Amino acid sequence: MAGGNFDAPDAGQSRGGKSYKKPARRGVHIDMTPMVDVIMLLLTFFMLTTTLSAPQLMNVNLPKGDVNKDKVKLAANNILFVRVTDKNEVFVSRGKEDGSETNADKIGMKELSPRLEAEHKANEETVIILRFDRKSKYSSLVDVFDEINRAKLKERRYAIQPMEEKDKEILKAFGGY
Amino acid sequence: MRKQRNIKKANIHIDMTPMVDVIMLLLTFFMLTATFRAAESEAVEVALPQTLYTDTNKMPERDVLTISITNKGDIFLDVDNYKFRKNVFGDEFGIGLFHPDTTTFSEAEQSGKVGDKDVKRSFVKLNKQQFEDKIRELKRELRDASGNPKAEFRVVVKGDKDSDYGAIEDLISSLNETNTKVFSMVTMIKHEKPKE
């Protein structure tokens, strides 16, 4: 197409050879430089002003109703405690019928969603009680919600409760704090 | 002279057509995907946490109540409607500042900065009671303006990933107090695949 412009042997001949006479070029040349300049400017502008990774939302539903009036009784063995310490360590334990609970397992954040799936398989009525230390990081809250959302559960039932001294005592026995 | 001219004419022509084609494509792509960030609508910048789970929820466009939490525990209350801001915070670009932790001081109040950036918008310092009152006032404004007595804000929480959970806990209790039972946490999508 536009190869004739810089055809190497052709150019060499016209420079060095005397026998060959170059035919006059007839193609119309449009100088694209100003256009390219403008387009480049536009491109830089759009590249710099766009935010490609749009933030997304993670919905949280707090329990409806009055905290003091509307209380729901839960069977103790339906409760799954997920506690996060000030060092952002995750402990999981299940409530027992007598009000105590099983040994708290320290697990990695990534193991939480398979664990939740397994717990739900064992007991479909499971309600997750989340307790976070006030000194834990916000990112661990988000991570826990991420794990809950990613776990394939029939029903996501969870509640956030404040971490109490009693919880810290329990976790102390299993290597937290 | 004539010979010299001929030599000059033999300079190299680079064909720019393919380059222009590519640049045009890029330009169209960026123009179509562009969502401009309005610098002034952003109250404070926080480092958002990342999540793997993706659902279809994107940032809503209107009636957004943005609550930003900085890593020093300052909570900023902002709304996208400048009339509401004028009525509630007394300034068209006003925002509310609430520092729930009484043992530390508010970074923004003391230095006027968040991280190393100045807070460009005027803010009103609020305590817990005032913070909740402002949320109620904003809701009333929304209901009056829209004429719908059940109109609700989309409450969006932008927390810094390094902020303490304590600030969130206080925020959640305030939201509960103001009957805001549904809110969303803003995250960025993490693209790596989980290791299993």
Written account of the structure:
The complex is a heterodimer of chains A (177) and B (196). Chain A is α/β, with parallel strands linked by helices and 177 residues long. Chain A has a domain at 77-173: eRF1 domain 2 (Nucleotidyltransferase, domain 5). Helix content of chain A is 33%, strand content 18%. Chain A has helices at 8-16, 33-49, 112-122, 138-150, 165-173; strands spanning 56-61, 79-84, 90-94, 105-107, 127-132, 158-162. A five-stranded mixed sheet of chain A has the order 4-3-2-5-6, with no helix packed on it. The model of chain A is unreliable at 1-14 (pLDDT under 50). Chain B folds into two domains: 2-33, no CATH class; 44-189, no CATH class. By secondary structure, chain B is of the alpha/beta class. Chain B starts with a helix and ends in a 7-residue tail after the last strand. Chain B is elongated and about 80 Å long. In chain B, 36% of the residues lie in helices and 20% in strands. In chain B, strand 2 and strand 3 form a beta hairpin. The chains are: A alpha/beta (177), B alpha/beta (196). Chains A and B meet through helix 1, helix 2, strand 1 and helix 4 of A and helix 2, strand 8, helix 6 and strand 9 of B.
Number of helices of chain A: 5
Taken as a percent bin, the fraction of beta residues of chain A is 15-25%
Order of helices and strands of chain B: HHEEEHEHEEEHEHE
Low-confidence stretches of chain A: 1-14
Structural class of chain A: alpha/beta
Secondary structural class of chain B: alpha/beta
Choose one word for the global shape of chain A.
Answer: elongated
Chain-wise SSE layout:
The complex is a heterodimer of chains A (177) and B (196).
Chain A: H1 8-16, H2 33-49, E1 56-61, E2 79-84, E3 90-94, E4 105-107, H3 112-122, E5 127-132, H4 138-150, E6 158-162, H5 165-173
Parallel strand pairs in A: 2-5, 5-6
Antiparallel strand pairs in A: 2-3, 3-4
Chain B: H1 2-9, H2 17-33, E1 50-51, E2 64-69, E3 75-79, H3 82-89, E4 95-98, H4 107-111, E5 113-114, E6 117-118, E7 123-126, H5 128-146, E8 154-159, H6 165-177, E9 182-189
Parallel strand pairs in B: 1-9, 2-8, 4-7, 8-9
Antiparallel strand pairs in B: 2-3, 3-4, 5-6
Helix pairs in contact in B: 3-5
